[in-house]
Write a structure and sequence with these properties.
about 240 residues; alpha+beta; 6-stranded mixed β-sheet; globular; disordered C terminus
Length: about 240
């Protein structure tokens, strides 16, 4: 049962920042998330500098991802401590885009959690295999999970069901997120550990959001689970 601090989490496919960057920054700053999980964030030339610049424009700090996670990035506010990050790359299918995932071990006060982010492939068979790999990694984690991802498939599809198994779909039955010019499909998800409590959920559909990307941003407010233990451990070197 949740009995900890409240947290706002955002998941957002930012379309490689190919749209209105000022609108993108305004949308995210207006939501004031504690954690932002981004897909199609900087992943190639000078990706570290570009991630740092994007984080600055969003009033956040870089926590993990980028090129090693094939464009999946996690940013946090200053109230969230990021202790460790690691990345995963899915097997490459010849002729298709390389895909991956990012994981960041975090804490707020006495509440530890792991933020994960991913962007599954367009090919149905490839996407199904990536969902299985991602789910296996998530199942091995020893802390509550908050997952933001672009499933590239509708809720109720096999890949969605695979990844969501054992987690709470914060937006179940919610509004479509793609494409912005005529939203028809809910392909962007936030899935949370059942030990956490979902307090609020929303899809932001405003003129600014429609100018910022080809996906609409999704946010969730949750109350974190706490085990009543000690504060989160410091990352090496802290």
């Amino acid at each position: 049962m949740a009995d900890g601090p409240r947290l706002r989490v955002l998941t957002y496919n930012v379309h490689g920042q190919r749209d209105d960057r000022a609108a993108l920054a305004a949308v995210v700053r207006g939501l004031a998330p504690d954690v932002a999980v981004l897909q199609e964030a900087p992943r190639r030339f000078r990706w570290r500098t570009r991630c740092a610049d994007l984080a600055h424009r969003l009033d956040m700090v870089y926590a993990g991802g980028g090129e090693p996670a094939v464009g999946n990035v996690v940013f946090t506010s200053l109230r969230v401590r990021a202790h460790e990050q690691w990345c995963l790359r899915f097997p490459l299918t010849p002729g298709r885009h390389l895909r991956g995932a990012v994981f960041v071990r975090c804490s707020v006060g006495r509440s530890p959690f792991v933020v994960a982010g991913s962007h599954l492939g367009l090919d149905p068979a490839e996407r199904a295999g990536q969902a299985v790999i991602l789910k296996k990694v998530l199942a091995d984690l020893d802390a509550p999970v908050v997952l933001g991802l672009d499933v590239n498939d509708h809720d109720g599809s096999p890949p969605w069901r695979t990844v969501a198994d054992g987690l709470v779909d914060a937006g179940r039955g919610g509004e479509p997120t793609f494409p912005v010019w005529r939203p028809q499909h809910r392909i962007d998800a936030i899935l949370v550990d059942p030990r956490c409590t979902v307090l609020d959920y929303g899809v932001v559909d405003t003129p600014e959001a429609r100018a910022a990307s080809d996906h609409l941003p999704v946010f969730v407010d949750i109350e974190l689970w706490t085990n009543g233990g000690s504060e989160g451990k410091d990352a090496p070197g802290e």
